[in-house]
Amino acid sequence: MQDGLKDQLEDLAICGGTPAFETPLHVGAPNIGDRDRLRERFDDIFDRRCLTNGGPYVQEFEERVAKIAGVPHCIATCNGTLALEIAIKALGLSGEVIVPSFTFVATAHALQWQEITPVFCDIDPDTFNIDPNRVAEMITPRTTGILGVHLWGRPCNTQMLVEVARERNLKLLYDASHAFGCTHRGRAIGSFGDAEVFSFHATKFINTIEGGAILTKNDELAEKARLMRNFGFVTYDNVTHVGTNGKMNELSAAMGLTSLDHMPHFIETNRANYWSYRKGLADIPGLSVISYDEREECNYQYVVVEVDEDEAGIDRDRIVQILAAERVLARRYFYPGCHRMEPYRSYFPHAGLLLPVTERQSGRIFSLPTGTAVGEEEIEKVCRIVATAVKHSDALGQRLDKRMIAGTTAGYRHRVA
């Protein structure tokens, strides 16, 4: 092994070598920020004995997020999924809503949970976002809305989606879980459509441990969402609307404020990591790192790699398997597509026939660890592992296939015995 980095087949952990990392590298390892400042905020919360119900930290967090997004209203919630559910309910969506399948399953579940049918639409092969041309083809008399996803922080074609929504009198909602701090044509994401929803889950570059938010310019929609977030209470003992318990607590908000304090540092770290991966993977056949528009602001929180198996000589799943043996826990974002998960694969068993791009890309994409838990040294190791896997793909494939056959045979003999 050269300079502590793997460059020979025998060095790979999957072939019997020592794993490259003692501690696993995760996609979405939490950014923490200034722990002393966080503790100060926690102490203040405990001294006040105001832990939830719209305290000062939640209010400050909402104000700062709204300012970044350039909208008058931010309604903070206990998680991003509930934010989606409340936004869907507040918009009055029903019947069918058109949504990409190439997304985290919560996007579809937020609809199905409310007995709204998610109609899966294919994605654009270049952007991986919902294809507006296909959206128009999926509309039926039961369609009430479009739910777009700014995948990996790269914006949807908002112009075309607005045109389709206006022409067909549909509501337009965005799942912007990946896109906090990003812009589109110089305008902050969070300000598009009837409403947008952010996630501040621990895996996001700005996190509240668990949390989410609804962003909107619509005063009436914001008022309704606030009521729905807190059981419909308009005053201490007066309920005027059906609602649920979707409130963000003060400790989560304090974590969010601490994250916001360090937002420029987190973005710069992500950006440096992104370019390190671009450099480290640039000369490996069949691999390409998705690009971001350098003219726009971006959080760079996802490093996403596309694998061309024909050119690389190895498929995405085997690369992920090899990395896992090294304790690099890459993720197949988003495999296998919502339409192949339950209950949707039972409801729509032939949906894949209408989703050829989604079917293709879900087998080619994976995401690599980044954030403040990862630096130049770790990235160099990861890239060397991937380069070794591709360089020795034929021999590696034969070795792993033989091992699989041997394991299957041994298992059969054990069962017979």
Provide a descriptive summary of the structure in words.
The protein is an alpha/beta fold and 417 residues long. It folds into two domains: 129 residues, Aspartate Aminotransferase, domain 1 (Alpha-Beta Complex), CATH 3.90.1150.10; 227 residues, Type I PLP-dependent aspartate aminotransferase-like (Major domain) (Aspartate Aminotransferase, domain 2, 3-Layer(aba) Sandwich), CATH 3.40.640.10. The strands form five sheets. It has a seven-stranded mixed beta sheet with strand order 2-10-9-6-5-3-4, with helices on both faces. Strands 13-14-16 form a three-stranded antiparallel beta sheet. A two-stranded parallel sheet has the order 1-15. Helix 3 crosses helix 4 and helix 3 packs across helix 7. The C terminus is likely disordered.
Annotation keywords:
15 helices; three-stranded antiparallel beta sheet; 16 strands; 417 residues; alpha/beta; Aspartate Aminotransferase, domain 2; 15% strand; Aspartate Aminotransferase, domain 1
**CATH homology-level superfamily of the largest domain:** Type I PLP-dependent aspartate aminotransferase-like (Major domain)
Which bin fits the share of residues in helices? Answer: 40-55%
Number of strands: 16
Strand arrangement across the biggest beta sheet: 2-10-9-6-5-3-4
CATH architecture of the largest domain: 3-Layer(aba) Sandwich
**Biggest sheet architecture:** 7 strands, mixed
Q: Structural class of the helices, strands and pairings? A: alpha/beta
CATH-defined topology of the largest domain: Aspartate Aminotransferase, domain 2
Quote the average pLDDT: 94
Number of domains: 2
